[in-house]
Amino acid sequence: MAALVLALTGGARASAEGWEALRQPGAIAIMRHALAPGTGDPAQFDVDDCATQRNLDRRGRAQARAIGAAFRAEGIAVDRVLSSQWCRCRETAELLGLGPVEELASLNSFFRRYGRREPQTAATRAFLAGLPADRRLVLVTHQVNISALTGGYPASGEVFVVQVDADGAVEITGRIPIEP
After folding, report:
1. Triad 101, 113, 140: Cα angle to 5°
2. Which of 88, 34, 89, 36 is nearest to 66 (CA)?
3. Coarse DSSP helix, strand, coil percentages of the chain, rounded to the nearest 5 percent
4. How far is CA 80 from CA 52, 58, 100, 156, in A?
5. Nearest C-alpha neighbor of 34 from the set 62, 3, 72, 76
6. Sequence-ordered alpha helix ranges (H) in 74-175
7. Among 114, 132, 60, 120, CA closest to 84
8. Per-residue pLDDT of the chain (180 residues; tens, 9 = 90+)
9. Which pTM was predicted?
10. What is the CATH number of domain 2-176?
11. What is the torsional sign of CA 92, 98, 101, 107?
């Protein structure tokens, strides 16, 4: 895990620029859940039963803890941590250790329910646009949600640093790539 923390805080130019972007007023961290091997969820998926979902493995849990440690090492204080209701996102958010975790349904995956893409993305944009500019948030969600919001494609555990304007337009201002 020490090597992971070093990779997060130590050298990559993208990481240094990402941490600096996160220090800016109004910056929001949008993170793809930590490593959960596989794609999508099993056919018997139930949001209330983690046994029916694709979940973090040992490396994913270590990755989530290391990301939280990197936030602390970088001196990034967080006002709120919001998460998808999926178990892999909630567990990632909890293991970050950055504060109490709140669920936000618009962060739920629409991977197999593509018709929900637009309304969920609009709801997330409206939520973000309505925040006070001095709030520092971490959102833990899924690749499809982040791609819909930003046009970018995050790796597992990667943090996109964004700024959101009053209309809900999201701009990536930094990236903190995370290796599992």
Report:
1. 20
2. 34
3. 40, 20, 40
4. 28, 26, 7, 21
5. 62
6. 87-96, 117-129, 143-150
7. 120
8. 333 443 443 334 568 899 999 999 899 999 999 999 888 787 888 889 988 899 999 999 999 999 999 999 999 999 999 999 999 999 999 999 999 999 999 999 988 777 888 999 999 999 999 888 888 999 999 999 999 999 999 999 999 999 998 788 899 999 998 777
9. 0.89
10. 3.40.50.1240
11. negative
The single residue listed with the structure tokens 């209330």 is 48
d(CA 179, CA 14): 13
Burial state string for 77-102 with b = 16 or more CB within 10 A and e = fewer than 16:
ebebbbbbebbbbbbbbbbbebeebe
Task: Give the start-to-end residue ranges of the domains of the chain.
Answer: 2-176
